Amino acid sequence: MNDVDPNLTSGPRVLRTPDHRFAELPDYPFEPHYVNVRLGDGSPTEVRMHYVDERPAQSVPGSGETILLLHGNPSWSYLYRHVIPPLVAAGHRCVALDLVGMGKSDKPVDRFRYTYQQHLDWLAEALFDQLDLRDLTMVCHDWGGTLGLRLLAEHPDRFRRVVAMNTGMKTGREDTSGEGWRHLATWLQFTQRSNPLTVSQVVAGLTTSTLDPAVLAAYDAPFPDDPYQHGVRRFAVLIPLTPQDEAAPAFEAAWKVLETSDIPFLCVFGEDDHVTGGRHDALSGRIPGAAGQPHAVLAGAHHFLQEDKPVQVAQAVNDFIRRTQPS
C-alpha cells in the first residue's frame, strides 16, 4: 500500500515518504528542515524539499563558512552523516539538501517531471530564493556535481570554492568507448529494467566498506515501493550521450563559463571509482581555479567515498577551506 499525503493529491500526484520509515536511522540524529518549491510547468502544486542544517556551538571557534553538501544518485543526505560532524566541530555550518525524488524530499509520480532543468530550478529556488545561501563552499558528488557545476556556472557570485567528488559534466561529445561509459550503459539498463530496484544494493556494490544491515535499510528508507523511485530511475537517462541531446547545449554553455572560472576548485576522488578510476583531469585539467590545488585520490575508496573514507573527506574539505581563506 502506498502512503500518500492527501494534501498533495489535488494537483499532479506527489508522494511523501512516511516519517516512520526514517525512525532510528543509525548515526543520523539531525533535525529535519524543509522548504517548499514549485513543481514546475506552471502547476500551482508545491513540493517539499528536506535539508539538514547543522551549525557549530557558539563556543566553538571557526571560520563561519557555510558548506553545501550535494548528494548524487541513488543516495540522499544520509551519505554525509559521518562527514558533517567533524566539519561542524571545525567551526563550519553544514547544509545537506535532499534532491526532489530522494531522501526525505517529496517524490512526484510523473517520471517526466524529473528533467535536468527542473532539478536545477528546484535547487536554485530552494538554495537561493528560499534559504538565500551565499559565500558557499560546495561539496558535490555524482549527480550532485553534475547539477552543482551548472549552479556554479550560472550563479558564481554565490560560491567561494568547490570540492568535487567522483563527478563530472558530460556534453555528449565525449568518447564513449571507454570502460567508464560501459559502466554507465550498464547502470542505465539496470535502473530501467530492475523491478524492484533495491537502492541499498547499488550503494553496497560501490563501496569498499561492508555496510551494516541498518545502514542499508537507511538507504532504502525513502523508497517504500516503485512509484517512489521514478526520480532515481530518471537520473540515468538524463546523461547526454550525443551533442543532439536536449540538455547538451546547457552543459556546453556551462563549460564556457567554467573554463574561465578562477574560483578555487578541488577534486577528491576515489581510487576505485568504477567510472573514473580516480582520474579527475576532465575537471582539474579544464577549470582554471583547479590549477595548483592539492587534488586527492583516496586509496581504498570506491564511488561512495563518503562511506569508505569520511574522515579523510572531511579533512580534505576543511584543509581546503583554511588554505583558500583570504589572509
Concise synopsis of the structure shown:
Its EC number is 3.8.1.5. The protein contains 11 helices and 10 strands.
Features:
Rossmann fold; globular; 327 residues; 8-stranded mixed sheet; 17% strand; 10 strands; two-stranded antiparallel sheet; alpha/beta; 11 helices; Haloalkane dehalogenase
Describe this structure in words.
- The chain has 327 residues and is α/β, with parallel strands linked by helices.
- It has a single domain (6-324), classed as Alpha/Beta hydrolase fold, catalytic domain (Rossmann fold), CATH 3.40.50.1820.
- The protein has helices at 84-89, 116-130, 143-154, 179-193, 199-205, 213-220, 230-235, 248-258, 281-284, 305-308, 310-324, and strands at 14-15, 32-40, 43-54, 66-70, 93-97, 107-108, 136-141, 159-165, 265-270, 296-298.
- The strands form two sheets. An eight-stranded mixed sheet has the order 2-3-5-4-7-8-9-10, with helices on both faces.
- Helix 3 crosses helix 8 (248-258) and helix 5 packs across helix 6 (213-220).
- Keywords: Hydrolase.
- Pfam families: Abhydrolase_1 (PF00561).
